[in-house]
Amino acid sequence: MNKAQLPSIESSRIAHSIGTALDRFIKNNQDQFAFASGELSQLLRDIALASKVVNREVNKAGLIDLMGAMGTQNTAGDDQQKLDVLANIRFTRALAKGGEVCALVSEEAESYVDLNNEGKYVIAIDPLDGSSNIDVNVSIGTIFSVYRRKSSAGTPIQEIDILQAGSDQVAAGYVLYGSSTMLVYTTGHGVNGFTYEPTLGEYFLSHPNMRMPDDGKIFSVNEGPSNSFSQPVKDYLQFCKDSHYTARYIGSLVADFHRNMLKGGIYIYPATAKDPAGKLRLMYECNALAFIAEQAGGVASDGVQRILEIKPDRLHQRTPFYVGSKNMVEKALSF
Ligand code: FDP
What we know:
alpha+beta, five-stranded mixed β-sheet, globular, binds 2,6-di-O-phosphono-beta-D-fructofuranose
């Protein structure tokens, strides 16, 4: 009797391989991580699980009264949407149950939240980014940064655990709830992207070793407040137009970043008269995307220094943000 050969199973034309599931990928790659790799793996799985629940709720939001405002405001004074609040609960709950996280910083909470004091990790998260797009069925996202706490597990959380520079991240990622749902993350060994297969309830590796093109022709910026942009930013935008670049701006940071990551481009949110320090949040928006951009060959800056070098002095600190293809960001910074 002939034995079945593995290669013929792998290349079968009637049952195509669906690729590597996220869980297997995390497990296969956990040796890359210098510390207690099993715990970081569990944490990433908890985030993935919460994102599946949020994805389910985002998908049926219009049907079950999850659209619209809560009637409350977040730390920035923005109206909280029901889905913002729901996503915050889903991620916090999943990370609390997982037990690996001692403290969580979220856009939706004024102060950090204590979780398991024995946990070795600190998370900074924007549970649902792009709130203004929630009600109109446009792509939104989740952004997260993972740090190792500096103090010993079991001792009280200290400021040094929470206010870490982006260069201290041990992992970061985003989830894009778009025409398909994707989870993209790095642990400092390149960037990998996974697409959600809803009928199987699993993420599968679809974008291995993602690289951001060095060049591109897309510029993404809200030019509404451009009268108050600094002269160098105005000049760079004029350069983009003179160079016949394409303007693309969704208004959801994750979606704009992801498109530029795949196609090559630059995203800019500069200082404006309304937001003199920029609008975006260093700890739970810019740091994660800066880490991913650099890991994929891109550049992220506040206009003066690498985003990852900024030492935060408060949880909800804002920063100007220039991120994207290496040559485009360097060109913008040269103005
Ligand atoms: P939003 O206010 O809708 O939550 O994180 C803030 C953010 O969205 C980003 O996702 C987005 O890129 C940016 O703000 C949009 O701001 P503008 O409306 O000022 O363009």
